[in-house]
Amino acid sequence: MELWNAITSKSPSPSHFYDEMFDGNSVRPHYAKVQSILSRLSFEERAARQSTMNRRLLEEGITFTLAQSEQPDALERTIPFDFVPRIIPSEEWDTIEQGVSQRVRALNLFLQDVYHEQNIFKDGLIPRRMIMGNRYFRTEMMRLSVPGGVYVNASGIDLIRDDHGKYFVLEDNLRSPSGFSYIYKSRSIMTHDFPELYFSHSVRGIDHSLSAFRAALRNLAPGDKADPVIALLTPGSFNSAYFEHTFLAQQMGLELVEGRDLVCRDNKIYIRGLSGLKKVDVIYRRIDDDYLDPLAFRPDSMLGVAGLMNAYRFGNVAIANAPGTGVADDKAIYSFVPDMIRYYLNESPILSNVPTYLMSRPEEREYVLERLDQMVVKETSLSGGYGMLIGPSSTEQERMRFAEKIRENPDNYIAQPTIQLSTAPICLDGRMSSRHIDLRVFALMNGRNVHVLPGGLTRVAMKEGSLVVNSSQGGGCKDTWVLTR
């Protein structure tokens, strides 16, 4: 038992944060089998097993590109994977699943409203200027009907837990959320390299979620084509998530293409091939709006397809997620999502937001500026851990610089109180330690139905004490198990 005694002796008291595996010095019931199995492994056995898993990641090319500011000499590396799973009891998952589904439905209705009737502005729930001046709002989408009325086919909703174990939504990712592939690779590694641990639990399967994903894309296709051509549009092999693009294309039977592989003819999109042109019905894009079509957006884009938006307007091709969805995952708009749920669904929010201060409101701005050392400040249009100030770990100089930025452009920033993300044990070179984690839950929308992938992606802040879990900032991942009972 020395392994588990070492973990609990290093863990801060429960008043500081919620530990997924331990309740004080006691192991939570749903982790009992994990404790039983791992406590029988020696230091050398744990280190050897971790080494085997890391080698598999390297051999399979499961990589992500780091931010240059963090690792200037090692831009691309394997995702750190930890073999101690994150386990979610069935009844706990039911609440998460219902809350994520509710949120995604409301966000989709918000996008439908914003680009058509704009009733939410007329009724005074959200200031019109916050949308019309948003960098992700696309006038090209006004009054344009999207296939099936679905703007957000695939979304990633980031959840955290406070020191009492309550779940909060931290962010909504609606443009082209990454992480699907790491869920499947994490599961593959656990079943292959640690079967005695995985098969000792009754875990909900995830394989059917890829079928649900493909079905959601297929149902966007124009007409009643029995076997539509679906293409995944990638920026190319230098993109940080290129492994995921290739994985999804292979697993779902999609054509993996770059912009140069496509051409627009008569307002239709085709793949160039040795045997001629092949018409594309659906494009699952993994590039930002700005680069989709040089005729509609950035004229210097080399990643998109000239004429794509015209083909989209004519209904000859579907795009997932729809252009313009980014306006709904802006960090300032995030603060209004609970109101959207009440407004569009006439329901009470199942999952709460983290309390959020809008810097565009003078009284909230001054409150935050007086307490920057206690706050997390985020630039509204950025993601991936960029453009953030984490007050408790910042220097006075960093806080002064952010205060100046906030005063210069208050609309560009929000602030939230620092929540000490829940922790979970991880294995580092055979030794057990504790790190902060979050949970990205993926939802797939098909018509009015929302499929929530069981478990999602648990992201790990690999640096001790760090709250930054993003892969682009050096974060790792765990397999996430939802128990069937």
Automatic annotation (TrEMBL):
<dbReference type="InterPro" id="IPR025841">
    <property type="entry name" value="CP_ATPgrasp_2"/>
</dbReference>
<dbReference type="InterPro" id="IPR016450">
    <property type="entry name" value="UCP005522"/>
</dbReference>
<feature type="domain" description="Circularly permuted ATP-grasp type 2">
    <location>
        <begin position="85"/>
        <end position="461"/>
    </location>
</feature>
<dbReference type="Pfam" id="PF14403">
    <property type="entry name" value="CP_ATPgrasp_2"/>
</dbReference>
<protein>
    <submittedName>
        <fullName>Circularly permuted type 2 ATP-grasp protein</fullName>
    </submittedName>
</protein>
<dbReference type="InterPro" id="IPR051680">
    <property type="entry name" value="ATP-dep_Glu-Cys_Ligase-2"/>
</dbReference>
